[in-house]
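Much of our argument rests on the idea that a fold can be written as discrete symbols. Part of our work consisted of pairing the sequence of a single chain with a tokenised description of its backbone. We regard such an encoding as a compact summary of how the chain folds. The amino acid sequence and the backbone structure tokens for this protein are reproduced below.
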Amino acid sequence: MACRPPLLLSLVPVLLAAGCSCPNLPLDPLPSGDDSSDPVIDDTEETNPFDSDPPTDDTEEPQDLQEGSNQLMNGGFEQGEGSYTGVGYGWETTDGASHGEDWLDYHTPYAGTAAQCITGGWSVAAIQQLSREGTVTPGLTYRLRAMVRAQDMTSGHGTYLLGLRWYQGETYISEVQMVPPHGITYDWTQIVIDAVAPADVDRAAAYLAAYTDGIACYDDVVLTDLRP
């Protein structure tokens, strides 16, 4: 029995059973990986930019510093005069003498019953108060703040009314001066000085000055350290 090559490979067993001798049948080759017709599978994992964590800012937030205790006595000038005529208790003139240009104002203080006033009629019109020895640590930040009122501070260094001074024992080292408000006459205004204590100091002083004609008054003077 003559036979033609089958078109379907599945007929081979039937033909063999019938005694048909057939030439070698071509077999369809298995799909090759090199076949350009095969679909290309991309195994690369897709990333979503919105799935990534946002960048972090490692910058440290500035810490809020808190005031410690006031290192001055009678910063509100409520305790009357001390050792110097017209100067509040606990305060001293910078030349160690009494002057008629200092007085306590009981009529128009910022708060309480009195304010300290100075007029610049003498060569070094200033008073101050030092903290106790050993109360200042180099490298720490300190704050001097006061309510200040000025009238007609017109000549010389008249805008310089408040300073934070550094001492080693009784020895003056340096000072930081206030940034003056605008104008030569102003009502009660809070002046604040923040400064880092330099090396080799152990005391600080609140310095109330009036280097000019006119009148400067002070109330609620506070000297304190600042800590986190």
Q: What stands out?
A: The two ends are 108 Å apart (CA to CA). Confidence is low (pLDDT under 50) at residues 3-18, 25-31.
